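Re: your question from the hallway

Yes, I did run it. Sequences:
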Amino acid sequence: MPKIVEQWLQKVLDTMGHRTTVTRSQIMSATKLNSASVSHTLQFLLERGIILKVGELQSKAGRHQDVMTLNPEAGYFVAVVLESTRMRFALTNFVGDIRYRWEADVQLGQTLQIREIVAGIEMVLRNLSEVQRLRLAAIGISCPGILSQSGGVTALNLGWKNISLTPELEEIFSLPVYLEHPTHSAIRAERWVGLAQGVRDFIDVMVGHVVGVGVFSNGRFVGGRDQMAGEVGHIRIDPDGSDVCRCGKTGCLEAIVSSPNIFRQYRAKTGLEGSYSGGLRVTDVFERARRHETAAVEVPDRVTRYLRLALSYLVNFLNPELIILGGDLITAEDLLLPSLREQIAANTLPDFVKNLNIAVSRMGLDIGLKGAASLAFRTALNHPEVLKNMCRLVVELHSHSPAVEGSSSVAS
Amino acid sequence: MPKIVEQWLQKVLDTMGHRTTVTRSQIMSATKLNSASVSHTLQFLLERGIILKVGELQSKAGRHQDVMTLNPEAGYFVAVVLESTRMRFALTNFVGDIRYRWEADVQLGQTLQIREIVAGIEMVLRNLSEVQRLRLAAIGISCPGILSQSGGVTALNLGWKNISLTPELEEIFSLPVYLEHPTHSAIRAERWVGLAQGVRDFIDVMVGHVVGVGVFSNGRFVGGRDQMAGEVGHIRIDPDGSDVCRCGKTGCLEAIVSSPNIFRQYRAKTGLEGSYSGGLRVTDVFERARRHETAAVEVPDRVTRYLRLALSYLVNFLNPELIILGGDLITAEDLLLPSLREQIAANTLPDFVKNLNIAVSRMGLDIGLKGAASLAFRTALNHPEVLKNMCRLVVELHSHSPAVEGSSSVAS
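Structure:
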């Protein structure tokens, strides 16, 4: 067996992680590796059961080409999504299928408890056999706030301060733990299995409790100097506006279009009692707008005015071919989307919308988990020691998978 | 002589084009090529006189390392800058020093005449000897408007329509011709010899006859789906504003902050006669503001209000570590820059300005020419046939350079 250069392994696995099935020549053209390197690497991976032959193609010259795919059970990942009011956990296989799921509530504004995250991870690991447990490769976490280089988390608006997330979990589970912002996770998920497969320039706009934009340009994340690119919540979209933002300024995008502020504007118009986390939710405001209740109609109108202005700026600065809308916006697709394209056009040059698609994310609640699993897979490939560990074990073919896909348990 | 793989040549020359002097081990670490590949490539380039040994370093182990640099006379480029009212031409050597320069006026609003561009290029080529002429590698052009894949140019606001620039010049000069937008040229120039050397995330804001932003993120250009990213002139920065833009909308950024519109706003306040291209220029408005003439002071105040708003959006979306301001803004550095940083801070989160530098470009009128020369050099490296041609000739060492740097001729 010739020595397998880590770079070859990384490139071949990265290519195979993007496609369902591939041939040797497709891998050569995607990785730019030469014929011998690809052959050696494929042989190495086939012998270990990390990839599988799943068919043949006949070429014009009459020769057969093997069709290969990742062995879905070659490895497992834990995906974790931390949100302001909810923690989500999943065990995924090597290709990101969710095998087991667990969720738990988080008290808004209280500090994050590492022991609750540990308990959640343990819940989804229960079904793995000893042998499968050895093939657990990494933990990927989608987490809001400011993420430090050393794996610490601070989200002041959520009451999370200097939580040493990565170091503690790495010690407890003896696994590499990778951490990423939800806007990046969303980008990964949409690129992997969502609307942005093969799209090189797009933005992912999430409007919910907060507002975030993931920027993907020229086939890469745009992170900026401090990985804060796309944190658009506090642009002063209405500099003369009176909406007071939690950051202390007025007229911020988040102070107008986020879910708590949609609710606030509706309450101000109606004199209604109650708070955002109380009985009435933002989806109820949209529902009342659909029934043409005047106060409820005016709120989405104002929200779209500023949302389209922000989107038109993003479109001008970045010239994407696709905008994906996610978060609570999804529940108001019928109210917000129909005129959005022409409204953006009215705020920019026609050339910018000529090739622009606007779509609502179809990934639902899975988006964070899929993104976190993708983070674990992709980052593991870039860490030689993790990559080696993933390829160390010979995977028993046709091994029993831990649970049927789709089965899940949700905490009430 | 072993076969030199084009990729090796490309990587080594690309690295050397970024640094003044380099050692073999610095090239290895920058290119990620192995020792043998780098040695072969350097030997090949040294034998042909394309790179030169210019010194030695002693390492800790007592061994000597050669220090090498590009031979400045190994090749020549023509740099061309097309502007709304001016054409600039330069002959540059292999490292971008301007050897000879020519300029000519363009009538604003009249179509671009290829024969005038040809005449300008011929002006700067006159001083090359026959031998040097053979080492002319490529022509780089910085040009506004919409640049088609086939090298055509359309800039409707300048009266330029479907001008087949690249194909015609390539036929006349039998040289590869590369075309790029001025915002990209500016980025290249600042990266090469300006304020952005080694900076991975920055934006270059040019305000003059039009407004353009070059976006560089994660060590790469951000172009977008149709290479229109950063064309920020027509974002509606004041949606309720009455400034009529040449695009037909109102409240566009360009309708407020571009030079003709700075002049327009001043004229409206003073009832002054005359037009932008007449006797009074935008620099005169700034000069009157310095003398505290009320109407003149109000105009820069309004300009900075909307400029800082646009910059705060850019900073939020892209999280750059540096903003470079260029164009006519340079002449008003004292009026615009002092409070710009705190004004941006007031429109965004403090974290975004913590690591943000704002500076005025120091490159003056050379910026476009340096950018076009860099375009020619970098693009030539990516075209195997041009690269081969550049390396085909053995360069006579200590060859006479065509003209002393700095000598130039400017048409009146």
